[in-house]
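Postdoc handover notes: sequence design on the structure in folder B. Input tokens:
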């Protein structure tokens, strides 16, 4: 029986079955945790993932973006030789999964990206006990303590009341964040049409087809200036400052991102109304999750590895940074 730390190497390669988790380079066999571009790449031979993740990959990269797809349900164990792999919800975006790998009673969990707060656009996070935990560290510094997203939406609605003639243009990544902002607005009782940049339409439609209620969504480019006065418009962050936004009536520039807790970033982007809405755990939730899994060994990836490794060691765990090449450290999509 191999110790847990030999089941997987530091490139997230499951040696026994020659399968990579979220590989950056094309591989013969890959398990994909979720559809964000730094995890899901086109060009693999065989891809195992949730049906939602496969649908997202096909929507973004084309139906034949992998040689073959195998869709698995959450909690459904798949046995390959003497290895069992099972996906569990990660609570990050639609279809996002943590991966449990079991060999001879040893349990390794790769979290992918995750959060524990309820989110109607993602299946709810499940805690998976393990011996070795490979965790993301996007917001792994003590300064990152995210406010409750409902409070951020309350600030947005207040700004809309204060500026009834202005459009509110919200920058949000097209996969995950845009749908979450819409869903949070609906949850807060906002039932007017929400206008979308063209880059958002397809993924929002995919969420709706897959059972996520987002209400009345319209293409902003087809709306009149009068329609857009006082309206919510959602666009990719890159569109906030370009020609596209000039047609909106005196827009209030907002941006929904975990990074908006860093005031300097909001200022750099010219964001008037920063909304701290994160799809990742914050620092206290990271530490709590690591403790809850019971893992004695922790590998850290995707972000601020060093601070988390230091804290884990202080808590008596064996911890290491992975420093995998090719992951975007700032999280173009988060
Ligand atoms: Zn992600």
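Designed sequence:
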């Amino acid at each position: 029986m191999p110790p847990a730390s030999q089941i997987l190497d530091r490139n997230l390669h499951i040696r026994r079955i020659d399968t990579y988790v979220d590989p950056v380079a094309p591989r013969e066999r890959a398990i994909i945790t979720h559809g964000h571009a730094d995890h899901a790449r086109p060009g693999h031979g065989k891809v195992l993932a949730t049906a939602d993740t496969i649908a997202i990959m096909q929507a973004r990269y084309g139906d034949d973006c992998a040689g073959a797809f195998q869709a698995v349900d959450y909690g459904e164990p798949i046995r390959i030789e003497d290895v069992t792999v099972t996906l569990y919800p990660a609570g990050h975006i639609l279809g996002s999964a943590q991966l449990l790998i079991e060999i001879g009673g040893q349990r390794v969990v790769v979290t992918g990206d995750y959060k524990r707060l309820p989110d109607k656009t993602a299946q709810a996070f499940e805690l998976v006990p393990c011996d070795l935990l490979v965790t993301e560290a996007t917001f792994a510094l003590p300064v990152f303590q995210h406010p409750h997203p409902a409070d951020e939406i309350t600030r947005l609605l207040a700004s809309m009341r204060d500026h009834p003639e202005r459009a509110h243009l919200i920058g949000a990544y097209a996969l995950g964040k845009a749908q979450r902002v819409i869903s949070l607005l609906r949850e807060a009782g906002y039932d007017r049409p929400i206008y979308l940049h063209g880059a958002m339409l397809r993924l929002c439609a995919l969420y709706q087809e897959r059972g996520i209620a987002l209400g009345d969504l319209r293409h902003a480019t087809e709306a009149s200036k009068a329609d857009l006065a006082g309206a919510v418009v959602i666009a990719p962050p890159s569109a906030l400052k370009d020609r596209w936004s000039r047609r909106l009536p005196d827009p209030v520039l907002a941006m929904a991102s975990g990074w908006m807790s860093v005031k300097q970033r909001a200022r750099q982007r010219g964001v008037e109304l920063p909304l701290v809405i994160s799809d990742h755990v914050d620092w206290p939730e990271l530490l709590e999750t690591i403790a809850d899994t019971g893992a004695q060994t922790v590998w850290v990836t995707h972000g601020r590895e060093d601070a988390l490794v230091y804290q884990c060691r202080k808590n008596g765990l064996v911890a290491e940074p992975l420093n995998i090449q090719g992951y975007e450290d700032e999280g173009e999509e988060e």
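Context for whoever picks this up: The pocket of zinc ion is lined by residues 34, 36, 92, 113, 333 (CB under 6 Å). Don't rerun without checking with the PI first.
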